[in-house]
Amino acid sequence: MKKWNKIMIISIGSLLLIAILVFISLDGTFLARKYDSVWSDKYIGGLENEQSKMIAYGIRAASSHNTQPWLVKYISSDTIELYADMDKALHVVDGDYKQLLMSQGAFIESYKLGAFKYGYEADIIYSIPNFDEKMPLIATIKVREEANMGIVDAISSSTYDVAYPEGDTDLKKTLDECIAEFPGFNYTIVESGPDVEKLEGFLLEGTIIESKDEAAAKELLDVFRWTEWQKNDYRYGLSLNTMPGLLKPFIQPIMQSSSKNLEAFGDGGIAQFKYRLDKQTRYILIRSDNPGSLEYLYSGQIYQKLIFEVSGYDLRPAMQALEDFEAMRSLNMKFRQEYGDDGEVVLIIGMQEKTGKSANSNPRHLVEDIIIQ
Q: Are the beta carbons of 291 and 344 closer than 8 angstroms?
């Protein structure tokens, strides 16, 4: 009997080991992670010139659905051109390209911070993009040396895995300073219980509409990266980045196999968004008097500046109620009627208190991925 028990234990243990090996093979657990290289000072330090290093800081920026729709052309040692990669445009949920423009603005602001780190000031010459082109020009960026600027630490406590100052930030003062640079913008902080509840009702309804719309769900599913293999191959897109590391090798392949069911995928997105709403304690509504393409670029810069400047909080954009595809249009109009008294809302930012260090595991491009000749 003892011998039989020992055989059973060995057999079960062997099966478990085989199952674990299968899962970690499917997920690519032990791959060298190229997709998080730009978060590494070693990677940036190994780049060939300061221009490449500043571009790497730009790649650290936020972007809509982590599409990273950026293309960069070297013009000279002190000048680059920034283009939009229309192959990454989300034509359903962002058919007016507002979120794409915000992503470009976020890149510009993050690049500027990288330039500042290396002792440069960045001057931006904005273009009016023609979205009928495959690569519309967004901006020309020139850097110039500033004699009085020293090398500084350009790592943001709100974005990267570093310590952040204790205590709450003076939010209104920070908002005033970040927005002062951009004419025609104002903001509202939503933080009282009934006001938060009403706003979250709009956001949840928008998420449900987006998740239940077949075309929108298919588009978002197309930018989901379910395994470490996919994250390394694509180096952009959505991922299960809030999951504990020990569970990823098992959960990610299972989620990938079940993701073909659009209804289940949508229900999962709704459940995840409800969880997020439970954690968020206040919201910032960013408004513009008469927003056009330049104002949406600016709003992306404002958002990225706030990520850098607001300590103690994770800042998450919520665009669902602002999207302008057919299924969302009725809610979009109701939202604008409710919140449009002092200009058009161009960006909703949810704020969640940080509870500790948060390593960024969203896939990110390498510099060479976005360079064009």
A: yes
pTM of the full predicted structure?
Answer: 0.90
Nearest to 346 by CA among 293, 310, 272: 293
**pLDDT tens for residues 216-258?**
999 999 999 998 899 999 999 998 877 777 778 777 877 777 7
Helix extents (H) in 259-324:
262-279, 293-309
Q: How far is CA 206 from CA 104, 299, 321, 330, in A?
A: 24, 21, 5, 10
pLDDT in tens, 248-297: 877 787 777 777 888 888 998 899 899 999 999 999 999 998 899 999 99
Q: Count of H helices and E strands in the chain?
A: 13, 9
Rounded Cα distance, 235 and 221, in Å: 16
Q: Give yes or no for a contact between 65 and 238, defined as CB atoms under 8 angstroms apart.
A: yes
Which residues on neighbouring strands pair with residue 206, listed in sequence order?
Answer: none
Backbone angles phi, psi at 353, to 5 degrees: -65, 135
Residues 195, 283: contact at Cβ < 8 Å? no
Q: List the one residue out of 310, 305, 336, 348 whose CA is nearest residue 203.
A: 348
Q: Could you give the domains of the chain?
A: 34-163+359-372 (3.40.109), 185-224+259-353 (no CATH)
Cα–Cα dist 239/223, whole Å = 9
Neighbours of 73 (CB within 10 A): 16
DSSP letter, residue 149 = P
Q: Which helix (H) or strand (E) holds 124?
A: strand 120-126
Looking up tokens 């990267």, which residue turns up? Answer: 160
Q: Which residues, in sequence order, are CB contacts of 168 under 8 Å at separation 6+?
A: 312
Tokens matching residue 358:
């948060």
Q: What is the distance between the alpha carbons of residues 71 and 77, in angstroms, rounded to a whole number?
A: 17
For residue 39, how many other CB atoms are within 10 A of its CB? 21
CB distance 344 to 336 below 8 Å: yes
- Determine the Cα–Cα distance for residues 369 and 367; give it in Å rounded to an integer: 5
* DSSP-derived 3-state class of residue 178: helix
- 193-208 pLDDT, tens digit per residue, is 999 999 999 999 999 9
Cβ atoms 295, 145 nearer than 8 A: no
Residue 27: which of 220, 235, 244, 254 has the closest Cα?
254
